[in-house]
C-alpha cells in the first residue's frame, strides 16, 4: 500500500501543497518541450521531402553551433559569424543534394536512411578535425541574448524564469509557427508534400527534386542553428548535444513523422512529462528518469497508436 500511495497519490499531494513548485516545473518543461519541437521540425522537414528519417539532424545541430562559435573564436564578429554560419548551412544543403541525394533518387528508403548515417559520421569527424572535441561556450552576450532571471510571486511562493528560457521559447514558437504556415500555405510547401508522397509523381508534374531538397535541407539547417544556439546558451556547445537532439525521435513518434502540429504537441508532452516525472516521481527510482521517460512514453504510443496523434494511417491492401 505504501508503494501505491507513493506512486499514485503522494506526487499529486505534493503538487497541491506547493503549487508554486508545480508552476516552476511546468514552465521548465514547457521550455524544453518547445525546443524539442523545434528539433523535431528539422526531422519533419527532411521526412516530408524524402520519406526518410534523417539521422544526421542531431549532428547538424552540433555542427551549426560549433561553426558559429568557431568563427567567432577565429576573430569574426558575432553577427557576421552568424551570417557566415547560415551560408555554411546552405553550402551543406547543396553538398548533400549533389553528393548524397541526387545519386539516390528513387532508391529504397533504407538506402537514403543509411546515407544519413554516413553523413552523420562525416560531420562528426570533420567537426572534430576543424573545431576540436572540447566543449565550447556559446557566445550568448555577443548575440545579444539576455542573461539573468525574473521572479514572480505566485501561490504564496516565487517562480523564477530565466530570461534565456523566455527568449528561447519565443524564438522557437515563432519559427514553429512560420514553418507551419510555410508547409500549409505556400507553393513550395505543397510541392514538398508531393515529393514526400512520390518522387516519380512529383517529377512527372514538373517539380524539381533538386531544388526542393536544397530548400528543405537548408531550412533544416537554419532550424538546427537556432536549436544549437538556444541549447548551447542553456548549457554548452559540445558533441553531447546530438544526444539531446535525438529526443526528437519520441516526439515524432507521439506527434507523427509528417505532422508539424504533431511535432509541437509531441514536444510539449515530452518536455512537460520529463520534468514532472523527474521532480515528482524521480526520487522513487533514484532520479535519472528524465533520460529514459520520453522513450517509455513513445513505446506506449507505438503499441496503441503507431502513426502518432496526428500522423497519417497508411493502409496497404493485399
Topology:
Layout: H1 2-8, H2 10-17, H3 19-50, H4 57-73, H5 78-101, H6 109-131, E1 149-154, E2 157-162, H7 163-185, H8 187-197, H9 199-204, H10 209-234, H11 241-245, H12 248-255, H13 260-281, H14 293-304
Antiparallel strand pairs: 1-2
Compose a concise summary of this entry.
Keywords: Amino-acid transport, Cell membrane, Membrane, Transmembrane, Transmembrane helix, Transport. The protein is mainly α.
Mass-distribution shape: globular
Low-pLDDT parts are: none
Radius of gyration: 21 Å
Distance from first to last alpha carbon: 51 Å
| Main sheet record | 2 strands, antiparallel
The number of helical segments is 14
Order of the strands making up the biggest sheet: 1-2
Content of β-strand? under 5%
| Corresponding CATH architecture | Orthogonal Bundle
CATH class: Mainly Alpha
Any overview of this molecule?
The chain has one domain (2-304): ABC transporter involved in vitamin B12 uptake, BtuC (Orthogonal Bundle). Helix content is 70%, strand content 4%. It contains 14 helices and two strands. A two-stranded antiparallel sheet has the order 1-2. Helix 3 packs across helix 8 (187-197), helix 4 crosses helix 10 and helix 7 crosses helix 8.
Q: Descriptors for this entry?
A:
14 helices, globular, ABC transporter involved in vitamin B12 uptake, BtuC, 4% strand, two-stranded antiparallel sheet, mainly alpha, 70% helix, 318 residues, cell membrane, amino-acid transport, single chain
Amino acid at each position: 500500500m505504501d508503494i501505491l500511495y507513493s506512486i499514485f497519490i503522494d506526487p499529486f499531494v505534493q503538487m497541491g501543497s506547493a503549487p508554486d513548485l508545480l508552476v516552476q516545473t511546468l514552465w521548465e518543461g514547457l521550455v524544453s518541450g518547445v525546443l524539442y519541437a523545434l528539433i523535431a521540425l528539422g526531422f519533419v522537414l527532411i521526412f516530408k521531402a524524402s520519406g526518410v528519417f534523417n539521422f544526421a539532424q542531431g549532428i547538424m545541430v552540433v555542427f551549426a553551433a560549433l561553426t558559429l562559435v568557431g568563427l567567432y573564436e577565429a576573430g569574426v564578429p558575432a553577427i557576421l559569424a552568424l551570417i557566415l554560419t547560415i551560408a555554411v548551412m546552405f553550402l551543406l544543403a547543396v553538398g548533400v543534394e549533389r553528393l548524397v541525394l541526387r545519386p539516390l533518387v528513387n532508391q529504397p528508403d533504407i538506402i537514403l536512411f543509411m546515407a544519413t548515417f554516413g553523413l552523420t559520421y562525416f560531420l562528426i569527424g570533420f567537426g572534430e578535425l576543424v573545431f576540436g572535441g572540447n566543449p565550447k561556450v556559446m557566445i550568448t552576450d555577443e548575440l545579444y541574448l539576455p542573461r539573468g532571471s525574473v521572479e514572480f510571486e505566485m501561490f504564496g511562493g516565487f517562480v523564477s524564469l530565466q530570461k534565456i528560457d523566455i527568449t528561447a521559447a519565443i524564438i522557437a514558437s515563432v519559427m514553429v509557427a512560420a514553418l507551419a504556415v510555410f508547409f500549409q500555405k505556400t507553393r513550395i510547401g505543397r510541392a514538398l508534400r508531393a515529393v514526400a508522397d512520390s518522387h516519380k509523381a512529383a517529377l512527372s508534374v514538373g517539380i524539381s527534386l533538386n531544388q526542393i531538397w536544397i530548400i528543405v535541407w537548408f531550412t533544416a539547417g537554419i532550424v538546427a542553428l537556432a536549436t544549437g544556439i538556444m541549447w548551447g546558451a542553456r548549457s554548452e556547445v559540445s558533441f553531447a548535444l546530438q544526444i539531446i537532439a535525438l529526443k526528437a525521435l519520441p516526439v515524432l513518434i507521439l506527434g507523427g513523422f509528417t505532422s508539424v502540429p504533431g511535432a509541437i504537441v509531441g514536444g510539449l508532452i515530452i518536455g512537460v512529462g520529463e520534468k514532472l516525472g523527474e521532480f515528482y516521481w524521480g526520487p522513487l527510482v533514484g532520479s535519472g528518469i528524465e533520460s529514459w521517460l520520453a522513450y517509455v512514453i513513445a513505446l506506449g504510443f507505438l503499441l496503441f497508436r503507431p502513426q502518432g496523434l496526428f500522423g497519417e494511417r497508411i493502409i496497404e491492401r493485399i
